[in-house]
Write a structure and sequence with these properties.
CATH class of the largest domain in chain A: Mainly Alpha
Largest interface: A-B, 85 and 88 residues
CATH superfamily of the largest domain in chain A: MetI-like
Structural class of chain B: mainly alpha
Organism (chain B): Neorhizobium huautlense
Number of domains of chain A: 2
Family (chain B): Belongs to the binding-protein-dependent transport system permease family.
Distance between the termini of chain B: 29 Å
Radius of gyration of chain B: 24 Å
Subcellular location (chain B): Cell membrane
CATH architecture of the largest domain in chain A: Orthogonal Bundle
Shape of chain B: globular
Largest sheet of chain A: none
CATH superfamily of chain B: MetI-like
Number of helices of chain A: 14
Radius of gyration of chain A: 27 Å
Helix content of chain A: over 70%
Number of helices of chain B: 13
Order of helices and strands of chain B: HEEHHHHHHHHHHHH
Membrane topology (chain B): Multi-pass membrane protein
Distance between the termini of chain A: 58 Å
Number of domains of chain B: 1
CATH class of chain B: Mainly Alpha
Oligomer: heterodimer
Pfam family, one (chain B): BPD_transp_1
Structural class of chain A: mainly alpha
Helix content of chain B: over 70%
Chain lengths: 301, 294
Amino acid sequence: MSDSVTHFDKAIDEAEKYLAAQKRRQTVSLAIRYTILTVVGLIMLYPLIWLVGASFKSNTEIFAGAGFMPVNPTTDGYVEGWQTSTPYTFGRFFWNTFLIIAPKTICTVISCTVVAYGFARFDFPGKKILFATVIGTLLLPNVVTRIPQYLLFRDLGWLDSYLPLWVPSAFAGDAFFVFMLLQFLRSIPRDMEEAARVDGATSFQALIYVVVPMLVPAMISVALFQFMWTMNDFLGPLIYVSSVDKFPVSLALKLSIDTAESFEWNRILAMSVLTLLPSLLVFFLSQKYFVEGISAGGVKG
Amino acid sequence: MSGDSRLLGFWYVLPYLIGLLVFTAIPFLGSLYLSFTDYRLMQGASFIGLENYTDILTRDRTFTRSFNVTMLYVLITVPLKLAFALFIAGVLNSKLKGIGFFRTAYYVPSILGGSIAVAVLWRYMFADTGFINMMLTSIGFEAINWFGNPGTALFTITLLRLWQFGSAMVIFLAALQSIDKSLYEAAAIDGAKPWRAFFAITLPLLTPVIFFNLIMQMVQAFQEFNGPYVITSGGPLKSTYLLPLYIYEMAFKKFDMGYASAIAWVLFAVIMVLTLIAFWSSKHWVYYAGDKRS
């Protein structure tokens, strides 16, 4: 009997030791984690910090050292960069970017929602094959369709306009978004729609009045992603937009590093900051939609 | 009711079907056809059979160079990016205060990285008089001619894409957080060391997202265009002349659409073969927990 009691004491003793060791390990692990995260974070963000700092420096100061704080802050880069070496200001290029993004984003949200609804809620002949093509186009490298698309848009007389950038989006051209919305739709119960249908609503009314209100967060995610992607898109405008007066900021920025301005680093860096600003603002105002979007599109399914 | 809804669903997906045919399927087959033709923009297409392909594979030195560089780039960038994303996701995956802050900070480059503005920033960072060299010289190293050296030039593009590990990391992190903690407790009770738990529990449960990230990152890396176009202009000595840049110049600078299509199809074939290998091999290394379907 007493033997088993000492055994018991010993066990408690050992358990306590084990717990203490574990706690120590956790503290050490936490310290290591924070160190890694902070160091990596600083390295990652430094280029951006430097970019912002350098955009407020004079050119001579940019070449003087690697620090980010401007000694004599100046807005020359912004003032002169905004004028550009073209007859247009950067304001024009921002307006052009907006003209590309707004219709494209609206078209994407509407068409992808309708199509995802069709896939999620109905059965029809050939659905499986058609859905397989959604996944297929997700993996299909654009490089293989680009040249005939160009020839098609040329024959339609759409070169040097924004139509080649808008129109495919009106036909749910970005399969990724169909896929993403589909993931969200699957998690929304059908009860309410069915109730609406029983009460005499058409399937389209059910979509507008029942599904869309519940799908709004996902639709916002889609709009945000499309906004970012279009803001960043370079190759599309490069191929289709040739007159400078129609350039979006991405092309204007490339133009400025190719011209005499390329020695005026502060101008170009200042315009780079402005180019990144809309995406950054949108991202910080709406972070949670992004994270939800990636997780839904990526992990489930 | 079921009769009419059969067609109903079809009407909803009709826009997609039209878009698929007009903007994807027909161009897809069109480029295959073009690859067998001699098609210059101002003249029509004339059928020349396999000539483009034999030229590409036997005579075209630029292609060989470009192909090798592309493979090297993908082979370096994708594994490094995935490993780094997984590592940071692992570090983030605990009861840290401020996890949201770090996750956001790491995700910002992914949001911005595709932008031409960041490519411009990269070009200036690694320029001879850029701040990377200034940092190196200030701590006593010699300045490196990043863009003058074939090895380092490609590395700058790799670094840019590594910098954007955030989107892969967010996916890894979500998967890590969905792993049942009791599995680790059970392993600890059985006396398993943390590294053993990592290889026996974490890694197998992560294989589906590793697989997903691998495919996505690979397809993306093979299509890298902005980096070489803006940062290095393909140089020096074509050491960063990735295939998408070659295709672009062939198609939209020299307007040799037939030949460009053939190169695009070779690139497509390479991506397809590697994707199929990944899918085929996934049976052996991707672990799907049977009861985790929602």
